[in-house]
Amino acid sequence: MREISLHILDVVENGIAAGGSLMTLVVDEDVENNWLSITISDNGKGLSPEQQAKVADPFFTSRTTRRVGMGLSLLQAAAERCDGRFSFASEEGKGSRVFCSFVYDHIDRAPLGDMAMTMEVLMAGYPEVDFLYRHLYNGREFLFDTRTIRQELEGIPLNEPAVLRHLKAGIEEELEILRTERADDR
């Protein structure tokens, strides 16, 4: 995939398909130590130990809608190609967790991509799901939690077009501040 955000979108959608109602996403850009790490977890149905053993096999999927599951194997290959790591953990009835890391300045690392757009697509397509998105940049943090936003919206759905535009713009602005703010400005 051309951007890591597309891998993120794929993994999150798999978690939702597995019954996840809360998707947690942590993106940690540790430029000072030359690492990018991503953790995605869900509270879905999880996988059996037998299914977990096959999770990186591109010809295995737990879905019934298709017979191959390229997503995790492609993400694993992307991480390992950039001298990073990949891990998957799951517990039946509790959910799953995907972790991957990349050497930040590795020549083969795809760009992170448009995380504001990724979140907008997820909220538009899955308005009933909650998303906890935590983005770190050299130790500074931005937190986006749809559970809090829902309370403020007082019943207006997340996928209302005006709400989506506002939320996306807010994420874009906060990520820009996060990346440009100096540590002593905190």
From TrEMBL:
Keyword set, alphabetical order: ATP-binding, Kinase, Nucleotide-binding, Phosphoprotein, Transferase, Two-component regulatory system
Chaperone among keywords: no
Catalytic activities: ATP + protein L-histidine = ADP + protein N-phospho-L-histidine
Record bears the keyword Kinase: yes
Pfam families recorded: HATPase_c
Stored PROSITE patterns: HIS_KIN
Parts of the chain that traverse the membrane: none
Domain Histidine kinase as annotated: residue spans: 1-106
EC numbers on record: 2.7.13.3
One BP annotation, GO: phosphorelay signal transduction system
Annotated organism of origin: Desulfoluna butyratoxydans
Gene Ontology molecular function, alphabetical: ATP binding; protein histidine kinase activity
UniProt name for this protein: histidine kinase
Stored SUPFAM superfamilies: ATPase domain of HSP90 chaperone/DNA topoisomerase II/histidine kinase
